[in-house]
Amino acid sequence: MFLNDNLKIFAGSSNPQLSAAVCKYLGLPQGGANIEKFPDGEKHIRIEDDVRGRDCFIVQSTCQPVDEYLMELLIYVDCLRRASAKRITVVVPYFGYARQDRKDEGRVPITAKLVANLLTVAGVDRVLTIDLHARQLQGFFDIPVDHLTGELVLSNYFLNKKIDNLTIVSPDVGNIKIAAKYADRLGGALAIVHKKRVSGSKVEAQELIGSVDGRNILMCDDIIATAGTVCSAVELVKKRGAKKIYVGGTHGVFAGPAVERLNKVSIDEIVVTDTIPLSQEAKKIKNIKVLSVASMLGEAIKRIHRNESISSLFNNV
């Protein structure tokens, strides 16, 4: 694969393994940068490579600790801009604050828009991300956004497993479109769980639309955070006669009681991608498997650099 010296890929601190895998896919060395923290907690970044007039990409998920990694990304962008990079693209596999995308009550912020503004003002020319919590978040940016989906990677994995008697279950009503895509690609029936939120951290699956009796189940979502929705849905379909249960998620956040909850319910396999590196606690989850999005990101970076179509990528991954 021929890529000229004008392309530079830099790694943030949040997910160095993914950055290295992207560079390996592209056959490029990782851009040199020194990231250090002063005794008072301030971050300092120094770019070791010449970036003047070059096309630069920064790979950084804004996962936990979200604020620290977000600030590091902003400093990185400012560093490249002041070093006269020709174009700066931030590759944010997991976009933190994406769920704060509207005012659902009085006197609250729209933090997703704030983050979009911060990146734009800092000097970002383009954003490459995977599975924003809502696709309309692309409209929060006044710069181009390339939006990839983990469904490409997850559906290929489950397709190769050749699961028979498959029913795709949407763990809540808001996930129906995603579930329908999996059903179209993998075949099988479609069922929907209706849930009720009891509190900010607890949900209850109350009813099931469709039949799961004697069927193998696949539930896929964009984010698995506290796992309340997924675990409640798993318990419901198990009571209704489901056999094997597979759970897939693009972003394995696994916050709060997620690990404990997932280990208590009957799930045959939990599959996530490496947009967020597994914490030591998350590695304790039974039957967990991590798929890499490195080749998808690498292919997208190559096409952005060459000014080629990104949309055609969805037919090839």
What does the model show?
- This protein is of the alpha/beta class and 317 residues long.
- The chain has helices at residues 16-26, 66-82, 111-122, 151-161, 176-186, 228-239, 258-264, 294-305; strands at 7-11, 33-37, 43-47, 55-59, 87-92, 126-130, 145-148, 166-170, 189-197, 203-209, 216-224, 245-252, 269-273, 288-291.
- It folds into two domains: 7-149 and 294-315, 3-Layer(aba) Sandwich (Rossmann fold); 151-291, 3-Layer(aba) Sandwich (Rossmann fold).
- Helices cover 29% and strands 26% of the residues.
- The strands form three sheets. It has a seven-stranded mixed β-sheet with strand order 10-9-8-11-12-13-14, with helices on both faces. It has a five-stranded parallel β-sheet with strand order 1-4-5-6-7, with helices on both faces. Strands 2-3 form a two-stranded antiparallel sheet.
List the helices and strands and how they pair.
Elements: E1 7-11, H1 16-26, E2 33-37, E3 43-47, E4 55-59, H2 66-82, E5 87-92, H3 111-122, E6 126-130, E7 145-148, H4 151-161, E8 166-170, H5 176-186, E9 189-197, E10 203-209, E11 216-224, H6 228-239, E12 245-252, H7 258-264, E13 269-273, E14 288-291, H8 294-305
Parallel strand pairs: 1-4, 4-5, 5-6, 6-7, 8-9, 8-11, 11-12, 12-13, 13-14
Antiparallel strand pairs: 2-3, 9-10
